[in-house]
Structures are given as C-alpha cells and as structure tokens.
Design goal:
With 222 residues, this protein is of the alpha+beta class. Helix content is 50%, strand content 15%. The relative contact order is 0.21.
C-alpha cells in the first residue's frame, strides 16, 4: 500500500441551501427570450440550465435545459430545441460563457428563420425567468488525507457533493471542482486530481458521483 499523504491544508466540506426566486421577467417570443437571456442575472441562467439536476438528484442523464424545453414544446421549434439541448455545459467554465453560447445559438437560428420570429407563446405559456439563490454553509467535516476524505464522502449530503462539484466550478468560476483543486494544490497529488476532473459529472446521478469518487480514491490509496 502506498503511503497516505497528509494535506498542507485540510479540506473543509461545505453544504448549501437553495431558493428559487421569480424575477418578474417573461418572454413570449424567441426575440424576447434572446433579449432577456442577455440581460438577466447569471443566477437565472444557472437556474434554467441546472434546475432539473438540483431538483431530481437521483435521475440521469441530464435532461435538456429549460430553454430547450420551452422552444420545443411551446413554440414548436424542434431544430432550435435540439441545438440548445446539445450544448455541453462542461465546455463552459463560467456562467458568462454559457450564457453567450445559448444567446449565440438562438440568434443564429433567428437570423436564418424569418417565420420563427413571428411565433408567440399562448397566454399562460410564456417563459418565466427564475433565479437560483444559494447559501453556502460550512459543515463539521474536514479531511487531512485521502482516507479521511473517502470516509467523509460516504457521510455528507448530496447538497454538499453538488456544491463542490457543480456550483464551485461554474458559479464561483474555479478552474475545476473543489475536490480536484484540493487534491492537486494541498495534497500535491496531480494524478488523482486529473482523474476527478476528467469525467463528465452531468452524465451521472449525485449518488453515482459519490460512489465513483470513492472508488477512484480507494484505488489510489491501495
């Protein structure tokens, strides 16, 4: 068995509380949707691209984002819906870059389809923009090495896993998830850090993510 490295700084596990708030903004056409996507807070873009993942943590794979659903099911623009659904969130390190990609996709579609500009959602079926508000709280769990990290990982809530894997990277604009950052910068273990940052977390449930990370750690320390 390889020696277990001690971290320069312990990993402090956090959790988060989540609230969804109406912004009062709504769109009935693709043009209105595009204009508001460019203007709404980043927390709203985050909500509409991660809502299902936050609310249905046991389901996989990731479903289409809210924008894709609305343009397909309400406006009947299947081609645009497919384009929006195919946007790979993992490729975009910030909310700003993800917002730009969504806006660009809609804008290019509108420029090529005069008829799409004329479509209106029926009354009561407009797209209502909601924003996601998170409150980050420290837990009592800390880890000084990989063995302790794996033990804690078996106990913490999925809200904690969600925060460190998804929110820390995209909303706090970190280069990768919190776990990988700690393992590389504090443990000095670049190999396992790369292992944890190389797979796509959007294709797994949070429980699957927990088990996958634990397996990677157990292989590393054995």
């Amino acid at each position: 068995m390889a020696p277990i490295l001690k971290a320069k700084e312990p990993f402090r596990f956090c959790t988060r509380l989540h609230l969804s708030e109406l912004t009062g903004l709504r769109a009935a056409t693709l043009g209105q949707l595009l204009a508001l996507i460019k203007e709404v807070p980043g927390s709203s873009i985050y909500h509409h691209t991660h809502r299902f993942l936050q609310q249905h943590q046991y389901l996989s794979p990731e479903p289409p984002n809210d924008f894709a659903y609305w343009v397909t099911d309400i406006l009947g623009e299947d081609e645009l819906g497919e384009r929006l659904a195919s946007i790979d969130t993992m490729q975009y390190p910030t909310i700003r870059s993800l917002r730009d990609k969504i806006a660009q996709t809609i804008e290019e579609y509108l420029n090529g389809s005069a008829f799409a500009k004329l479509k209106f959602a029926r009354a009561g079926e407009e797209f209502h923009f909601i924003k996601s508000v998170s409150f980050v709280l420290p837990t009592n769990y800390v880890a000084y090495d990989l063995k302790e990290f794996a033990e804690v990982l078996e106990k913490i809530t999925m809200d904690s896993i969600y925060f460190h894997i998804f929110e820390a990277r995209l909303r706090l604009e970190k280069p990768t998830n919190d776990f990988s950052l700690w393992m590389e910068n504090s443990l000095g273990d670049k190999k396992i850090a790369e292992s944890l940052s190389s797979f796509d977390p959007y294709t797994s449930t949070l429980e699957d993510l927990r088990e996958k990370i634990i397996r990677i750690i157990e292989r590393r320390i054995s």
